[in-house]
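=== RUN LOG ===
request id: a7f3
mode: sequence -> structure
chains: 1
length: 188
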Amino acid sequence: MVEKVGYMGIPGSFSELAAQKLLEQMGMEQMELIPLVCAKNILEAMRDGSVSYGVLAVRNTTAGPVSEFIQAFHNVEYEMLGEYVLPIHHCLFKRPEVSMSGLLQVASHPQAIRQTCKTRMRHWPDLAEKEIEDTAIGAEKLAKGELPDTTAVICSINAGQAWDLDMIARDIEDSSENKTTFWLMKLC
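=== RESULT ===
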């Protein structure tokens, strides 16, 4: 039987890549990755048995602890089975038909917004910030027209390219040493 592993985000997210690397590192074959977007959804899926394990972002070298993990798993008994540290390199994307002067806001996960704050203030100080549930979801929503055309998104290069968005800039994280620690977990 194939065991299921829930991860934060959707295909193209940093969490998907971390989950793949972490399972490979652990030698855990025959696992099916299930995109569950957020820590709360992973906890619920582990509790109801629809996934056996979760891969969650727990802290970042630039932005600190991942608050959604802390909030979801506060007072929850779990076992950390493995850890993977993923270098995080953010890119800024827009819709192809929109000019830079037509952009009004930038949307992304709160962690990505915090990890790119200084760079964005230096290069794009007039863009308002909009927090959304996931970096890769931001790319999908922008491509599908679910975010205004006047929005740029912060996401991985894979997510932006998968949705045929135009890259404005790459490596916009404030620190070249930007890394996120992910844990493979199960409930006790």
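=== NOTES ===
The two ends are 21 Å apart (CA to CA).
Helices lie at 14-26, 39-48, 67-73, 110-115, 117-123, 135-143, 157-162.
=== END ===
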